Amino acid sequence: MGFHEAQVNLYVEQVSTSRAFYTRFGFVESFRTPREGEPEHLEMRLGGLILGLTSRAAVRENDGPTLGAHQRVAEVVVWCDDVDRLTDEAVTDGIRLASDTRSHRGRRIAWLLDPDDNPVKLVQE
C-alpha cells in the first residue's frame, strides 16, 4: 500500500512550549522546520510513536483545517510505571490535571492537559 509509519499531530500555539512539555515524558525531538528559531513544526519520538507539533499559525497560513479555540481531535497516551507519582509530580510542576487518578479495567490512569488543553492520558498496567 505504501504506508509505513503513522504519527499524531497536534495543533499548538507555541511549538517550543509544547516541546518542553512532551520532553518530560521521554519524547525526543527528531525533526524540525525551520531549523533555526521558533519551529512551525517539529516531530518527537517515544518508542514507536511519532508525535508532530504544528503551530496553529502555520496551519492557518497554509490553508489547513479551520481550527476551533478548544477543538479536541486526539489524545496522546503515555504508558508509565507509576501514574500516581508522575501525576503528583506533574501537578506540583504546574501541569493541569483533567481527571483524578483512578483504577480502570485493571490499570491506573489519569489525564493531564498540555499547554494547549490537548488531553494526555497516563496509563500504568
From TrEMBL:
Signal peptide bounds: none
Domain spans labelled VOC: 2-125
Entry-linked Pfam families: Glyoxalase
Gene3D superfamilies: 2,3-Dihydroxybiphenyl 1,2-Dioxygenase, domain 1
Origin superkingdom: Bacteria
InterPro entries the record matches: Glyas_Bleomycin-R_OHBP_Dase, Glyas_Fos-R_dOase_dom, VOC_core
Full protein name: VOC family protein
Species per Swiss-Prot/TrEMBL record: Leekyejoonella antrihumi
Taxonomic lineage of the native organism: Bacteria, Bacillati, Actinomycetota, Actinomycetes, Micrococcales
